[in-house]
Amino acid sequence: MVLPVFGIRHLRPLASPSASTSRSISVPGSASASASVSSSVLKAATFVVSDAAATVVAPPPKASAMLHGHCHVEHSLYHGFSIRSFRHPPSPHRPLQARGKKTTTTIKLSDLPQGLIQPKAASPLPTSSSVSSPHDESTETSPLPLPPLPQDPPAYPTVLLQARQNMLKFDNCVLLTRVGGFYELYFEHAEEYGPLLNIKVANKKTNAGLVPMAGFPFFQLDRFLKILVQDLGRHVAIAEEYPNSPTAKVRSGGLMHDRRVARIITPGTLIDENFMDPYANNYVMAIHIEPGIKATNTVTDVKTVIGRVAGSEGGLAGHGPESAHPSPSVVGIGVGRGAGQSQGLQDAVSLGLAWLDLSTGYFCTQEANLASLPTILSRLCPRELLLDQALQSCPDNGLSDLLAEDRHIISYAPRPHDSSLFHPENWTPMLECALAKHEASAFSPAEVHAAGFLLSYVKDRLQGMSMKLQPPLRNKDMQVMAVDKNSMRALEIKQTIRDGVFRGSLLHAIRRTVTKSGARLLNEWLSAPSTSLELITSRQDLVARFIDDINLSDSLILLLRRSYDSQRLVQKFTLGRGDADDLLDLASTIDATRDVVNLLKKANFASRKLEHHCLTSLISRISLTHPLRLSQRIRDAIDEEGIVLQHDVQDSEASQMLALAEIVVSNEGSQDDAASLPKGKRKRPVSIRDYYAEENGAWVMRPAASPNLAKLHTDLATLTEEKAALNETLRQRFNAPSLSLKWTPGLGHIAHTKGKDARNLTDVQALSSSRSTRSFHISEWTLLGQRMDQVRAQIRAEEQAVFYSLRELVVKNLVKLRRNAAVLDELDITTSFAKLAREQNLVRPVLNNTTSHTIIGGRHPTVEGGLYEQGRSFVRNDCLVGSPTDGRVWLITGPNMAGKSTFLRQNALITILAQIGCYVPASYAELGIVDAIFSRVGSADNLYRDQSTFMVEMLETAAILKQATPRSFVIMDEIGRGTTPEDGTAVAFACLHHLATVNQCRTLFATHFHSVADLAHEEGLCSADVGVVQTYCTNVVEDREGGFFYNHKLQRGINRQSHALKVARLAGLPDRAIEVAKRALKQDSFI
Asked: Is pLDDT at 306 greater than 60 in this prediction?
């Protein structure tokens, strides 16, 4: 082998030699005169290489040359490699060098090293025991393998490259890419979600190989978004087409469009999608864990941690002390068998909550703890929960378990790097108006961090779209009744327990609203009834006014039907969305608001009594001066007939896409694919460009919308007249009466003839022809047509400018429009309450600040409706609880199916209805304001958290005993039934005693353990007149023939017979089983 030559400075490749040309290499030599090829050190100075061998000529330098390590190079080389030795500049202290005798050495060319130079591994450091020559071959190490050469990416088409880049950038989203009239999925997204969407997955041929793809027509976007976002809970990134500039076209190889993600759609950030629930808010909520709380878990078998993964040296992984964002604290939260012992820990975990509805701009914050979180979530029903991404690395944290139990959709996001949003004064660009200093300072640090986290997340989802939210409200400042999660479910306020459906719930029974926004507000009122006596009274006054004046109420309802969901309409414009139809809907709502105000003023003035302050306050809250100008501006600018024509064009485009989809399905799809296509009447497909190319184009704005637009329409009319004149001139020139001037997408501006005129024009060069038609170009018409197209393009640009100006006016009137919409929503609810009161014979409850309930002739609002449909009547019952004479606690006994649970629920529901301002189903009602309603009704286990039925019952009971106040209203049904009668009796009495003596709240307590009444009497809680606990019961009426019926009437006393066998017989138990049960009851051991 050839060893490296020392002192080489340059290795310069020259031109390759021919077969007969020799190559010379000049190198410094050694002290030896010559050496063989097999020697360990090559002493050659000059190589002369021929085809067969190489001749080495080396001048031996003197010792001084070797001493200083340099030599003089004399031979100039023209081929091969030139190797120059490094020479120091001349020095007077160095002796001059002399040339020695030349020697030659011959080697074979095959002995020279070939191929790439392999890198060598670092040799180990020499030791004193083993020192070798630097040229000893035995000390050389084996060469290391070369790194692989870089590979070029697959040559995908530009559209696929754009899609791949977007998929990598938004890796947690499903990417839908707009390509012409379709939205398409590519690569692994097509393979994964194509079957879920029930669309065919095909393979697109590219130079890089087959690429999976799936797609659907653009007009079916909402349908598939509903599946992806609502049903599957995915995040969807929408990549839209943006026209490329001329330079961008060149850069992209002639691509007409660039495809960028315009918006990320998540379950909680919907804006105006058609699949949104119009009758409920669409909240996204951020949860921030307040730092600084340390606790350890004392519960065995369960250990969960909330917080970031601990890093080295006690720090947080990936977060040093310089981090600007506080990290969630490490807290042990018990779940499962020992969850009851960790209630104190849950109370200690401080949370900051912030939620908003992007479709309406509603924004709110609240401080809470882990124990109260389920109640808040059941009240708000957020569509999406936002947590710190650091929590995702702790799958066993208690917060995630708590949220997963109710199947909430959870999104994890990193904390924003920009900490500016953690200061309320920096929220101003995203709010409709700036916060005052005292308002900004009122937010707690936990609320500020939750709100900043939420705003950053929503801002990122919108991808640059602006938004104007309402100023955030602090829920702490709102006076509302607390309805916990279990009560919301047990009382069936929004959905039934059995089926989880809307029909049969309290909301279904009372909703008579005619607007979508009014229905959403009613949902909010019902979830959080007010505790403000003044507010409740003002709502009742409005209801009473509309009950007294039926004509006024009906007229208002008709006007409200003419209005639209202006809360969501206005928000669309603040987000840069909306179209001309939305502007017209907004104008109709403003006009309806004006008519509502006039009607209220007229009704207020016509009344001979004193002015109704409730109507006066409503009128004063409505501002119409600027909104009416906006409405008139919209009416003057938008051409409604043009809107109708544009809709026809859009329907035609949709028909074209649907027809194309049907062709694809018929060729490649299955019957299921064909069934998935929308059905309907097919319109004649007409191209949008065909419409826009004609002089009667679908103009959206009136010519008078702007001076420039009027001028452009005048120019277009002039050009249209020139076209008619040119058409007549050409008919005379070619003697062709059928000649017409047209524009087609494929041929452009053409003259078209038909019939005998087409056959006579044989001397004209035709662009297309048939037996009866002929089309050809005429320069005059081409120039005129181009001028007309240019004017039409200018008209559309000006229309867009007018539309933007109208949208800007809407945003400027944002605050007034939202306030007006809030008044219309309240009118919608109060008129619906008046209508409901007339239909169902409801009465106005009297509310006060006492702690007593007086309900005479109360009825269950939902059960009564079900019985009415069956032709049956409801048995009314009285409830007088809370006063010293009537007792704070009613202990109710009685047989199964006799109406105990119905009585408990109906009084809780009457309380809720009274505090939202609605009339109640009773003959008379006088209620003290209730701050919270608690219920322990029904039975269910929780297998997810390893909790038995009795454990669930005890957990709920413990929460009630800890949280109820003297102003609370509690209903408890059959406490202790999940264990032995002895233990159940003890537990039931202990709860009754605690509620009566410690909580001292209004309580309805139903039980089958009759001995509880005896224990209460022994403790002195029961007395005939003034006892804290009063006993009531229901009974069964039997006839002489063995028949019976339930009278459902509540009466004083204790019923020690449950009549369970009668219920068993009604349920259809076999007679033999009933007889066995009777024999067992007769035995003393079973009594």
From this structure: no
